[in-house]
């Protein structure tokens, strides 16, 4: 449920904000009398609803038409290009609409276009995001299905309230509203621009250069934060609106007649404005709270328990007493290899207290990589793929079982050779700073600061400069240590 | 001011409000009963699909040809084809071998007890806690104690591979007055007979209750089918089904290469079933969805009917609310005219009536949910013969539905409010 709530806001939030700001500017432009404003508000709603429906239909159609990842990228690219154009049109037309009241006959169709295109893009993104989170496990009505649908409905209602409040606030502070519209479009343009460029690179219409790839990567990296940036803009709008709103007037007894009526009208107006502000604040609080709940709590993967660091004795072995690890829980250890990889492994009693058989394995899987395993109750779970591991089988290779670690039992200890742990370095990607030496020059250096590194036969080598790196790369056998793994074979599939 | 107006309205006009609440209660009771039945089964199905363990049944391929008419199996090959006991360790040799926690073979044949010629009872041969030789697993014990942990035995389990010890199902034991330690003579259709001791009484599922459970070796001996088994139950640690595995289950060849790899290398029950079929070429395996195969079929078929009934209840009660509210608007037209004359906006007056509608909806919805919960238990007992777990989400759904009923009923009255002109109402012309 929390996923659907958060993802609705993530997908539709920016679109709602931009369209509502534009609607607010139009409201301001037409305001001559209260009745005229009310009439325009109704017009805008009547335009927005069919445009929304059309947008959702377009987005859904694009999603189902796009079969496969490549077609989806193209659909997104086209959609986001259209969004850029529509948003630009809106920004250009907004000052005219504010200045000349006749311009609204152009602005209203632009509003319809903006709503439809932004909604279509948001619907496509939402549909794509939700493919990995099933709406329901079965076709028969069930609690999960109801809660997920309810989340979508609640999110839509909150966005509707947010849109109404934003457009009202923007109509009261039109210049700030215009500025925020430009900023909001700029933020989204960065996200859309990055996606469009990625699409162009993938389709092959743009040459792949490292600068372009880096730009796309940055845009993608910050895309997650875009919706929060939009919310900050909404906060600024709310603050400006509150400062501009008149204070509720106090009715004193010495006022009478017409003046008293006027004062009362003013008070009613001020109270009404306060209500709008509270509505905006409530909608924003709900949106931010449900997004933060998902991003900071609900979507977080389970955390690994602490790993005990191990030390190597003078015989080049790691010894762990069996008594220490036979209680049936997962005991995680970590060893830092000579090239700085943090090698995690764990020990667990595969049977019960009477039948002690310790499984000794790396905290990594051949299929899923080094995400690791956690214990929940009696179950050992692979974090990456959620598979429950049959505990008696720990220590055997196959399936998603942890990779076995070669070891011996001696005098009630589990004895692991240092060389075996060094071999495990290739299963783990986590690197900690450690002192290493350049294999060519013999100079000492810190691995994480090394300008050049090269992986050869299971070991990573670090170099102080390009010269030694080149020397090593040309003849690695000359400088390398004893191999830990067979040299990587490059394999070209026959096409 | 708003709350004071609402309070007054309820105090002055409580009879009509009560009638409106009653209308909503009627509709929501029906909705609650239907929804909780359906949602209870849906939740059970969802739990089954999302469970981290599955049971798989492996039968000879010819047995899996569906030829069931009216619940009776007409497949002429049924029970004529067998799996080889020697092939069973192959199941522990698939890609997801480590996720197979247990496997139990079954071989069923009819036998007669003692002298009574007509008294045919099923004899079920199986493993209890047998050490199975599996490559790489030095102590893989398997049998019904692993795959069917709910089996309860009074007395002791028979010795594995013994030819003279059996368990007796509880119904049979009661009918024949058998106790642990009693002796029986079992005679098969092939004319073979054995003298056996009853080592215990077993409480298991319906099939075993009226029969005898024996070591597999004894069943094979009596049937003259050495080294053969009729079916195999496999327990596996799996991950919940998702859209990929559903797609694969209907047709693995519809996946592209990458999807196939992802599916094959994930512990979906469909992937494990597929791998078991690869390992045993003449066998057919399928996951057992207990709820989905029984109650789920019933509910799935009548779900649309339920939705139509609920919709009808919704519409009729919304119409009733509409006429009630409309009368109240007409009655209070002077009050409304006065408010308008004092400068109240249409929205403010409308919110007053909507507020009434929402309060009526919430009260009616809560009472309806309580009554419907009771009704659903009665329906559950008469239809499924079991009480149902009341899903809490129903209360939420029903209250929302009843608020929607009340709001839908206020659409027409709100138009009436808009049409009222203060001048006319204050002069009493409307």
Textual characterization of the structure:
The complex is a heterodimer of chains A (495) and B (430). Chain A is of the alpha+beta class. Chain A has three domains: 2-298, no CATH class; 312-423, Rieske Iron-sulfur Protein (3-layer Sandwich), CATH 2.102.10; 435-479, no CATH class. Chain A is built from twelve helices and 15 strands. Chain A has helices spanning 2-30, 34-65, 69-99, 104-129, 143-172, 174-203, 210-244, 257-298, 322-325, 418-423, 466-474, 476-479; strands at residues 308-309, 317-321, 331-336, 342-349, 358-365, 373-376, 379-382, 388-389, 402-404, 408-410, 413-417, 435-437, 444-446, 452-456, 459-463. In chain A, the strands form five sheets. A five-stranded mixed β-sheet of chain A has the order 1-3-4-5-9, with no helix packed on it. In chain A, β7 and β8 (388-389) form a beta hairpin. The radius of gyration of chain A is 31 Å and the shape is elongated. The two termini of chain A are 44 Å apart. In chain A, 37% of the residues are buried. Chain B contains 16 helices and 16 strands. Chain B is an alpha+beta fold. In chain B, the strands form four sheets. Chain B has a six-stranded mixed barrel with strand order 5-6-13-10-12-11. A two-stranded antiparallel ribbon of chain B has the order 2-3. The longest helix of chain B is centred in the last third of the chain and has 38 residues, at 346-383. Helices cover 50% and strands 21% of the residues of chain B. In chain B, α2 crosses α13 and α2 (14-50) packs across α14. Chain B has two domains: 2-46 and 295-426, no CATH class; 51-288, no CATH class. Chain A binds chain B through residues 131, 134, 136-147, 150, 265, 268, 367, 379, 385-390, 392-393, 396, 398-401, and chain B through 35, 38-39, 41-43, 45-46, 49-50, 52-53, 95-101, 136-137, 237, 239-243, 265-267, 292, 296, 299-300, 303, 343, 391-393, 396-397, 400.
């Amino acid at each position: 449920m929390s996923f659907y709530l958060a993802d609705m806001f993530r997908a539709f939030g920016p679109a709602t904000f931009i369209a509502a700001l534009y609607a607010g500017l139009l409201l301001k432009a037409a305001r001559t009398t209260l009745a005229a404003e009310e009439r325009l508000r109704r017009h805008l709603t009547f335009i927005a609803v069919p445009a929304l429906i059309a947008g959702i239909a377009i987005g859904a159609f694009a999603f189902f038409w796009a079969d496969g990842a490549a077609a989806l990228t193209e659909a997104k690219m086209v959609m986001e290009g259209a969004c850029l154009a529509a948003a630009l049109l809106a920004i250009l037309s907004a000052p005219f609409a504010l200045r000349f009241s006749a311009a609204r006959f152009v602005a209203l169709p632009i509003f319809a276009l903006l709503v439809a295109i932004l909604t279509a893009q948001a619907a496509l993104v939402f549909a794509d995001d939700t493919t990995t989170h099933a709406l329901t496990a079965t076709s028969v009505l069930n609690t999960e299905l109801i809660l997920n649908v309810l989340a979508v409905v609640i999110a839509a209602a909150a966005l509707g309230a947010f849109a109404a409040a934003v457009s009202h606030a923007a109509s009261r502070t039109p210049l700030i509203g215009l500025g925020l519209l430009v900023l909001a479009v700029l933020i989204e343009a960065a996200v859309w621009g990055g996606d469009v460029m990625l699409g162009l690179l993938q389709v092959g219409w743009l040459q792949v250069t490292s600068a372009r790839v880096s730009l796309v990567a940055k845009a993608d990296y910050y895309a997650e934060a875009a919706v929060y940036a939009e919310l900050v803009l909404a906060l600024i709008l709310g603050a400006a609106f509150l400062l501009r709103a008149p204070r509720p007037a106090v009715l004193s007894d010495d006022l009478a007649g017409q003046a008293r009526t006027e004062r009362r009208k003013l008070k009613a107006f001020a109270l009404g404005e306060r209500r709008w502000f509270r509505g905006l604040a409530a909608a924003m609080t709900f949106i931010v709270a449900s997004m933060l709940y998902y991003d900071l709590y609900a979507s977080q993967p389970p955390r690994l328990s602490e790993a005990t660091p191990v030390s190597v004795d003078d015989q080049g072995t790691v010894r762990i007493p069996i008594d220490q690890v036979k209680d049936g829980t997962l005991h995680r250890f970590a060893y830092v290899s000579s090239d700085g990889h943090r090698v995690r492994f764990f020990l667990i009693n595969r049977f019960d207290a009477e039948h002690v058989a310790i499984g000794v394995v790396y905290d990594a899987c051949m299929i899923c990589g080094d995400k690791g395993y956690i214990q929940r109750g009696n179950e050992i779970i692979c974090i990456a793929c959620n598979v429950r591991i049959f505990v008696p089988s720990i220590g055997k290779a196959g399936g998603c079982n942890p990779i076995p670690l070669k070891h011996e039992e001696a005098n009630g200890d589990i004895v692991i050779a240092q060389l075996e742990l060094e071999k495990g370095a290739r299963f783990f990607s986590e690197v900690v700073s450690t002192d290493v030496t350049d294999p060519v020059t013999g100079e000492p250096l810190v691995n994480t600061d090394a300008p050049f590194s090269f992986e050869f036969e299971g070991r990573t080598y670090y170099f102080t400069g390009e010269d030694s790196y080149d020397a090593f790369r040309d003849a690695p056998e000359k400088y390398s240590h004893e191999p830990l793994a067979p040299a990587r074979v490059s394999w070209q599939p026959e096409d | 001011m708003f709350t004071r107006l609402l309070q007054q309205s309820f105090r002055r006009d409580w009879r009509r409000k009560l009638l409106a609440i009653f209308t909503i209660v009627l509709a929501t009771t029906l909705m609650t009963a239907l929804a909780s039945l359906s949602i209870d089964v849906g939740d059970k199905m969802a739990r089954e699909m999302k469970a981290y363990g599955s049971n798989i049944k492996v039968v000879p391929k010819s047995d899996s040809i569906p030829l069931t008419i009216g619940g009776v199996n007409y497949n002429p090959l049924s029970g004529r084809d067998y799996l080889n006991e020697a092939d069973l360790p192959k199941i522990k040799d698939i890609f997801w071998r480590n996720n197979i926690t247990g496997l139990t073979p079954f071989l069923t044949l009819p036998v007669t007890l003692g002298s009574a010629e007509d008294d045919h009872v099923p004899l079920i041969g199986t493993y209890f806690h047998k050490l199975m030789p599996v490559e790489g697993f030095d102590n893989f014990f398997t049998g019904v104690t692993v795959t069917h942990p709910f089996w309860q035995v009074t007395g002791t389990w028979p010795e594995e591979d013994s030819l003279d010890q059996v368990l007796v199902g509880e119904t049979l034991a009661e009918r024949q007055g058998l106790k642990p330690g009693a002796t029986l003579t079992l005679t098969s259709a092939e004319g073979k007979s054995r003298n056996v001791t009853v080592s215990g009484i077993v409480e298991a599922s319906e099939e075993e209750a009226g029969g005898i459970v024996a070591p597999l070796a004894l069943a094979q001996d009596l049937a003259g089918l050495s080294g053969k088994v009729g079916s195999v139950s496999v327990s596996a640690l799996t991950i919940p089904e998702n859209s990929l595995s559903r797609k694969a289950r209907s047709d693995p060849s519809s996946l592209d290469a990458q999807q196939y790899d992802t599916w094959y290398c994930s512990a979906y029950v469909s992937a494990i079933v597929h791998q078991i079929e690869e390992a045993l070429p003449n066998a057919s395996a399928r996951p057992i969805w207990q709820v989905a195969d029984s109650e789920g079929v019933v509910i799935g078929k009548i779900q649309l009917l339920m939705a139509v009934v609920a919709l009808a209840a919704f519409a009729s009660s919304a119409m009733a609310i509409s006429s009630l509210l409309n009368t109240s608007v007409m009655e209070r037209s002077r009050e409304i005219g006065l408010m308008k004359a004092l400068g109240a906006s249409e929205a403010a007056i409308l919110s007053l009536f909507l507020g009434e509608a929402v309060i009526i909806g919430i009260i009616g919805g809560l009472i309806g949910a309580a009554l419907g919960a009771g009704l659903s238990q009665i329906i559950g007992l008469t239809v499924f013969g079991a009480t149902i777990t009341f899903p809490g989400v129903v209360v939420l759904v029903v209250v929302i539905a009843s608020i929607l009923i009340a709001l839908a009923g206020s659409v027409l009255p709100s138009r009436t409010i808009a049409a009222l002109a203060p001048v006319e109402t204050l002069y009493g012309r409307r």
